[in-house]
Specification:
mainly alpha, three-stranded antiparallel beta sheet, two-stranded antiparallel ribbon, 8 helices
């Protein structure tokens, strides 16, 4: 339920600790009400995300990986835009299949995590809603350090209070996702 922030100063500035906005926290900053996302909305958002990826692939004529994302039943992603080594390896294998000649893909050693410097929580409601084969986690991990989700929520609420333009811009920019997740109205 997090989205990647884009750098810059003023309205697009990254929030502190992690450069992601939890849409539930953004909506809470805008409305003053804390809300949770229903399992059906989680499933609908996941399906919409895969469909959007498929549409971008088709429009650009790129190698498809939407089916790999849709089939992923494990963790799959550390954050909304950082796939795990396992998913990256599957994508690399698909690329190698398309290359001329015999190209072998070597798996990344388990001791080397490519994009795992920031890891979002994998909440139980998401695991259950998407029927994932993964253990839920409650907190963020940033550079190997645990950041409690509640602490990050409060830090971001404080930041939003000091940066109301970020709330305004975020609510407009993510209006469709917020509506899909049932976080508006």
């Amino acid at each position: 339920m997090e989205v990647r922030a884009r750098g810059g100063r003023a309205a697009g500035e990254d929030p502190p600790v992690v450069p992601y906005h939890d849409l539930r926290v953004l909506a809470e900053a805008a409305t003053g009400r804390r809300r949770e996302v229903a399992p059906a909305a989680i499933r609908e958002a996941a399906a919409a995300s895969v469909q959007a990826l498929r549409a971008r692939e088709e429009a650009k004529g790129t190698l498809s990986m939407a089916d790999l994302v849709a089939a992923e039943r494990g963790v799959g992603f550390y954050t909304v835009n950082h796939p795990t080594n396992t998913l990256l390896t599957r994508v690399a294998e698909r690329v190698a299949e398309r290359l001329p000649g015999d190209v072998a893909v070597q798996p990344v050693p388990a001791s080397r995590v490519l994009l795992g410097g920031v890891r979002a929580p994998l909440e139980a409601v998401v695991v259950e809603a998407l029927d994932l084969d993964a253990e839920p986690t409650e907190d963020w991990t940033v550079a190997g350090q645990t950041v409690p989700a509640e602490q990050l929520r409060q830090t971001h609420l404080d930041w939003y209070a000091q940066n109301p333009q970020a709330v305004e811009v975020g609510m407009r920019k993510y209006a469709d996702q917020l509506r899909l997740l049932g976080l508006t109205g």
